[in-house]
Structures are given as C-alpha cells and as structure tokens.
Amino acid sequence: MAPYEPEKDTSEAADLRVGRRKAARYAVPIAVAGVAAATIGLVPALATSGDPDLPKVTAQELIEKIAASDTQQLSGNVKISTDLGLPSIGGMTGGFGGGGGGADRGEDGEGKGSAADPKGKLMELASGTHTLRVAADGPDRQKVSVLEDAAEYSVIHNGDDMWAYDSASNEAYHAKDAGKGGAAERHGKGGRDVPEGMPATPKEFAEQALKAADGTTSVTVDGTAQVAGRDAYRLVIKPKQSGSTVGRITVAVDEKTGTPLKFTLTPASGGAAVVDAGFTKVDFGKPSASTFDFTPPKGAKVTEADEHAAKGRDFKEKAGKGGAGGKEFGEGDLNGMNVIGKGWGSIAELKLPGGKGLPKAGSGDVPQDAQKLLDSLGDQVEGRFGSGTIFSTRLVNALITDDGTVYVGAVTKDALVKAADAAH
User: Fold this and answer.
1) Each residue's pLDDT expressed in tens, for the chain with a length of 424 residues
2) Cut 0.85: pTM above it
3) What is the assigned CATH class of domain 10-292?
4) Residue 404 burial (CB < 10 Å; 0-12/13-18/19+)?
5) Domain parsing of the chain, residue ranges
6) Backbone angles phi, psi at 255, to 5 degrees
7) For tag attachment on the chain, is the N or C end more exposed, with fewer CB atoms within 10 Å?
8) Structure-derived torsion over alpha carbons of residues 335, 340, 342, 348, reported in degrees to the nearest 10
C-alpha cells in the first residue's frame, strides 16, 4: 500500500521533534534485557489475512497518538527474534540452567554469580528467537517470563520486591526495595537488575527509535496492518543520511490505544530484519493480582542482590591485589568517549588501555590458536590512521586501530575508516 503522505521535509522537522519528545516520555514499565537487542524477519505468527481499512492519519498525528497513549495495564505474549549475524549468545552464557547469569567467578566458587541473575540471563535475548509472556499493572507490578521448551525464566517486580527465577536450575534472585531509592539506583530504573537500556516490548523499542529521529530522519505512515488480532497503522522511520547500516524501522501502532504492537528494524544491506519484536497475543485488561505473586519453590537456592554484590566486590578487591586494581570493565579501563557526527551516522571514539591495539600475528601476546581465531573474525584495513581491524555485525561495526583507538557505530565499514582518517 502506498504511503499516506510524502516524506517529511525540513520545514516540518520542528513539529515532528515536538511530537517525538512527547512520545519519548512514555514507556511500558517492563524490561527484560537492553541493546539492546534485535530480531529476525517478519514472524509468521504475526502475519495478517489482510490490511484493515482505517481512517488516514499523518506521521505527526500518529506520533502524537503514541505520546498520548498511557497504557498501564496489559498482558500477552511477545515474540522477539534477533539476527545480528553472530553466533548464539545463549551458548556463551550457559543457557538456561547453565549458571551463566553471574560473571564474577573466583576460586572455589567465591564471587560466583546466580544462575537467576537477570544481568546474564536476559542477555540471551540478544540472539535467536524467544517467546516472552508479559504482564503489567502500573509502575509497581510487572512480570516478564522467557519461555523455553523445558524451562521458564521469570522476572517479577511487585512493589518493593524484585524476584528472578530460573526453573531449570531452581535458583532465585531477590532484590529488596525495588521501587524506592537505594536499591532502585543499584538495580536500575524501576528496581530492575538488568542491563540498562535493554528494551523488552515493542513500545520500548519504538521509543528508542523515536529519540533518534530528528532532521536527519524521514518519518511516514505506510499503510496498515493487523497485529495480534488488532488493527494498527505502520509508522516507518528511515535515515536520510548515507553511511548508516539501518535501512528502515517499522512500528505497528494500535489504532485504538496508540500502543506500539510490533517493532521491526531492517538493515540497509537488505535481507531478514535484524530486530523483530511483536505481540502475538495482547489483552489490555487488568491482570490478576496473583500474576505478580512469587514465593521461591521448596529447595530453591536464593541469592540476595546485596549479598551477591558484596561477594563480587570482595572478589574484585582480591583480584586487584594481583594487579587488576579491583576495577570493573569501564572503570578506568577505557578512556573518555568522544562522539563523531550526529544522528544515524554517529560514531563513538574511545581509547583502549595501554595505547595498544589487538595482538598481531607473531607477537606472542596470545596463543597461536587464539590468534588465528582473532584474525578470522575481523577484516584488516589501512588508511591515514595506520592499520587496524574491523569487526562487523549486520547492524553495528567496530574498528580497532593498532594504536588502541576504537571507532564503533551503526555505520558502514567505509564510514569508520573515514572517521579514523579524519581524526588523524
């Protein structure tokens, strides 16, 4: 179906920015994981038998509809698929019951993390296809369950408590005062002990995309769709700038409530979507109060968040005596970040510690097999900056130069090389 109106030009940019700023203030208070994350092409379960016939709206009107939406109660199933062109992260993090949730592991298990720790568990959503069962009842009660063939992993926020439970390992993770200060600051917005900024619902994906939309962006309404049995408009967001790896972002917006029901990010290179997240079933009624009740099953190992954090600090301090300084990655390991460019073409520039790039063949810095693996993962490039290695996904590329400078962004390889050349 043809777009309802032509691409917005710069004369309308101010009006669009106002609507986008309003839209960014609203978020469904559910989170499962941050980048993050991303999905594969259109999911058959979300397909429709025909596009509904709805009243025409402009992009500005549809953005304002999203901004005006104040959905506080819902339940349903969400399918999230990611195709970054990387090996499955699930195998790297241990999978369900694999104990991959905790990153801090010392000798004799000291500092060992909980298999139910959301920081590790929910990163599994960054690869493959997953089905989530979600429920929300205002800002104080949310639940997200990741469903697998033989296991279920749930994060439950109910008032001052945040619980995470992994049925495969029969382990639970508990954070108190989840809705207040103190622990709320330690465990993220709304008391969520999950990677910050990792969206869980189509609305959260959409809001992150809208925040990036400005004069560098085309925003149009491109027909209608039906998602999870509900009529929706398709909002299409495209970069106007060259050099971005993002082709288009399509958001299906519920015609009645203004709630985004589906989010799809297609790369500029074409093919299957990098991110596809959408409801397969949704109900905007009030979930049962029992949905958010949780008591650890008999025999479950329970890890308290504060106790877990204390053990991790003790382990880091001991490791620091051996020369690591007891710092976590990011605490002094990387020098200050500089952002080159703007909009979709933004590139982050930062320095690796020690002013050195990756190990080179024959240097003896890493075992020979490890060196071969490292060399096979990247492409060697040269320019005015010298030489370096580019590591690529279908969305994000990173250049690490021999002098230890890192350039990373959702841009093409050529854009990274040009940025590195311009900095020298």
Assistant:
1) 444 344 444 444 444 444 444 333 333 322 322 322 322 222 333 334 468 999 999 988 998 898 888 899 999 999 999 998 865 444 443 433 334 444 444 444 444 568 888 887 777 788 889 999 999 999 999 999 999 888 899 999 999 999 999 999 999 999 987 555 443 343 444 444 444 555 656 667 666 666 655 678 899 999 999 999 999 999 999 998 889 999 999 999 999 999 999 999 999 999 999 999 999 999 999 999 999 999 999 999 999 987 655 555 454 454 445 444 444 434 444 557 899 988 889 999 999 887 777 877 666 677 777 777 777 788 999 999 999 999 999 999 999 999 999 999 999 999 999 999 998 8
2) no
3) mainly beta
4) middle
5) 10-292, 338-422
6) -65, -35
7) N
8) -40
Angle at 253 between CA 194 and CA 19, to 5 degrees: 85
Phi, psi torsion values for 59, nearest 5 degrees: -60, -40
Residue with tokens 């025409």: 56
Q: Tell the residue number behind the tokens 């952002």, with chain if given.
A: 339
CB contact at 8 A, 202 and 278: yes
Q: What is the 3-state secondary structure (H, E, C) of the chain?
A: CCCCCCCCCHHHHHHHHHHHHHHCCCCCCCCCCECCCCCCCCCHHHCCCCCCCCCCCCHHHHHHHHHHCCCCEEEEEEEEEECCCCCCHHHHCCCCCCCCCCCCCCHHHCCCCCCCCHHHHHHHHHCEEEEEEEEEECCCEEEEEEECCCCEEEEEEECCEEEEEECCCCEEEEECCCCCCCHHHHHCHHHCCCCCCECCCHHHHHHHHHHCCCCCEEEEEEEEEEECCEEEEEEEEEECCCCECEEEEEEEEECCCCCEEEEEEEECCCCCCCEEEEEEEEECCCCCHHHHCCCCCCCCEEEEHHHHHHHHHHHHHHHHHHHHCCCCCCCCCCCCCEEECCHHHCEEEEECHHHCCCCCCCCCCCCHHHHHHHHHHCEEEEECCEEEEEEECCCCEEEEECCCEEEEECECHHHHHHHHHHCC
Residue identified by tokens 């926020």 is 157
Could you give the CA distance from residue 277 to residue 126 in angstroms, rounded to a whole number?
Answer: 12
Residue 178 has which token pair? 């989840």
